[in-house]
């Protein structure tokens, strides 16, 4: 938590006690703002635009900009139509064949996007704007089962209903920051250059442009009700890793990850830079998912004395058992699977270990709780670690009780 003396303005100076108190108040907020607050802000002229966004299969926010008054009067408590192809495109936003949801055969019909008013947030990098996430529904008012948030919501409900568990996650998010914009670089016949070519792992002396970007990102996310716990740079050129947020309920944590991606890209563009969450060819491990399981309000994976409970043993067995089948989600691109190489910090064996960074699944047991961490050489995408992508972990856990645990991996030689 920041102290009251911290200056959160991008300019030099000291903040007043009142400004600091207001900032700390924002940090303590649960995140989203209430619809009544939005109405009041619209009436007061402080908000004039609402972004209604649907997370797509690539982990992007897609939607429309609405006049705020129109949104409140005609959309907020009903729905808006969207072309269903938003859930059937590739990374280049091109329609992909083979989807049962929609296709050229049915003319790419509409689906309904219902605003989830519990996700309303300010968008500090856009003037007088708020963002709200939407859930996809078919014309018969049934949830669209393949929508990323619905996939995750259904898995979490199964985890609760069948086994009584509740899951919490902490997402380690990574992206790479480049100088310039793709359009201008391509016109000049030059590739994008990382914002820094030095090894900045755990560095505290960042180049000025990078430090300014990180400050703006930190401030913007806090003002959006999603304060960052910590940020560290990594060894790869331009690599920003471990943008971490507090542990939280899975769906909410994934929603915040979506916000991070949107903010990083927008703020980078404003600074004449490019932020990409695609797997970069130069770097090592790219993301981590820290997972905790709770039963009746108590940690379910550990014993309380640093050991693992029977549930914890079976959970790691289920994760290890499921990893090969989940490989296409962890490593969907050439950049991803080429990085499964010795000495790269990307796991090369389907094994688990205790506090072992070379393992695909690593455990950390303390006297308070037990955490499992999934590691993979790919950044979070809807089908891997993000809002609709984090389903893999709850899915693995719901099946984990079927498998006995193996022995943890140990290091031998190099």
Automatic annotation (TrEMBL):
Record-level Gene Ontology MF annotations: glutamine synthetase activity
Feature: compositional bias, Polar residues: 1-19
Pfam families for this protein: Gln-synt_C
One GO term of the biological process aspect: glutamine biosynthetic process
Keyword terms: Ligase
InterPro entries the UniProt entry points to: Gln_synt_N_sf, Gln_synth/guanido_kin_cat_dom, Gln_synth_cat_dom
Biased composition, class Low complexity, residue ranges: 381-399
Domain GS catalytic: 148-414
UniProt family annotation: Belongs to the glutamine synthetase family.
Entries under PANTHER family matching the protein: GAMMA-GLUTAMYLPUTRESCINE SYNTHETASE (PTHR43785), TYPE-1 GLUTAMINE SYNTHETASE 2 (PTHR43785:SF12)
Protein's name in the database: Glutamine synthetase
Organism of provenance: Streptomyces yunnanensis
Lineage: Bacteria, Bacillati, Actinomycetota, Actinomycetes, Kitasatosporales
